[in-house]
Every structure is written in structure tokens, then in C-alpha cells.
Amino acid sequence: MCDQKVHVWIDADSCPVRTEIIHVCRKFNIVPNFIATFHHFRKSDEGEKWTYLDDGSQSVDLYIINHSTRGDIVVTQDLSLAVLLTSKGVYVITPRGKLIEETDAATILNDKHIRQKSLRQKKKWKGPSAFSKADREHFTHVFEDLMSMHEGI
After folding, report:
1. Model's pTM, two decimal places?
2. Domain positions in the chain
3. Top CATH class, 8-151
4. Which of 31, 35, 27 lies closest to 8 in space, CA to CA?
5. In which order are the strands placed within the sheet that holds 73-75?
6. For residues 49 and 21, what is the distance between their CA atoms, to the nearest angstrom?
7. Could you tell me the end-to-end alpha-carbon distance of the chain, in angstroms, rounded to an integer?
8. Span 58-74, mean pLDDT?
9. Helices marked H in the chain — which ranges?
10. At what angle do helices 105-120 and 79-86 cross, to 10 degrees?
């Protein structure tokens, strides 16, 4: 796909698949870039890179947008961020293993509009189901396939 190795960026403030990301990235000799706010500080282990930012509004999102390039991979639960990234040729995967495509943008933004409208009207909105072992396994499988495709394996 490209001459240089892919960069993997992780919206790490609430990432339940950190261990899985590290494990898969090690297979491909890639150091994942975890981006988080200072409130989520943790000691880095070998084979992972952490960048900490002020707890400003959207600081992690803006950092990832400004540092990722075409062909990179981003792991995030933030679908609005995903829409911005896919439009610039970045692969986006959620911690549940869903690959976000550029063609998903209209649906994602429409769903967000409906959700925000309901919340303004004080209607209850059901959140996502609890994160499961099956979600974790699905993420690992899809992420590894994406990395393999990227490396031409």
C-alpha cells in the first residue's frame, strides 16, 4: 500500500483494547501511539508510545487529526472523529472491531443529530451494550486482518 510503515494512533482516554493493540502491533514490529489526556496518565511499557495532552475540549481528537496521514490506522470509539479521518484516507476501527468507511459518514452524522435532539428533549437514550469478550476477540481479528492487509501479508 505504501513505502513506509503504517502508524497506529489510539484515542486512549477510554480504550478497552490496549493490550490487544500492543499484542498485534508487536507482531508487525510497529509501536502504537496512544494519545490521552493527563487524567489518564499511566507508565509506558516497552513497545508503546504515550503522548499526554491537556484536558482541553477535543485535544486528543485534534492531535490525532493533525498527526495521522493517509494509510494510517486509528482506533477510536468517537464516530465523529472517525468521519473526519476517513475523509482523509485514514483507516478507522472501533474497539468493537467495526471498520468505519467514508460512506458511513451520512448515517453516523444523522444518528448523532437524532441522539442529540432526543437528549435535548429529555428523552432517554440507551447506550451501548457492555463490552464483552466476543467484542474483544472480534476487534483483535479485524485489527490483525487490517494490519496484514496493510503489510501485504
Report:
1. 0.81
2. 8-151
3. alpha beta
4. 31
5. 49-53, 33-37, 8-11, 73-75, 91-93, 99-100
6. 12
7. 11
8. 94
9. 18-27, 59-67, 79-86, 105-120, 133-151
10. 150
DSSP string, 72-106: -EEE-S-HHHHHHHHTTT-EEE-TT-PEE-GGGHH
Distance CA(106)–CA(28), nearest Å, equals 33
Q: CA torsion sign, 104 to 141 to 78 to 92? A: negative
Task: Give the pLDDT of residue 55.
Answer: 81
Q: Cell 468493537 sits at which residue? A: 96
Tell me the three state secondary structure of residue 146.
helix
By DSSP bridging, strand 99-100 and strand 91-93 are antiparallel
Query: Distances from the Cα of 2 to the Cαs of 30, 33, 149, 150, 152, in angstroms?
Result: 15, 19, 11, 8, 10
pLDDT band with cut points at 50, 70 and 90 for residue 127: low
Residue 3 pLDDT grade (very low, low, confident, very high; cuts 50, 70, 90)? very low
Are the CB atoms for 75 and 8 separated by under 8 Å? yes
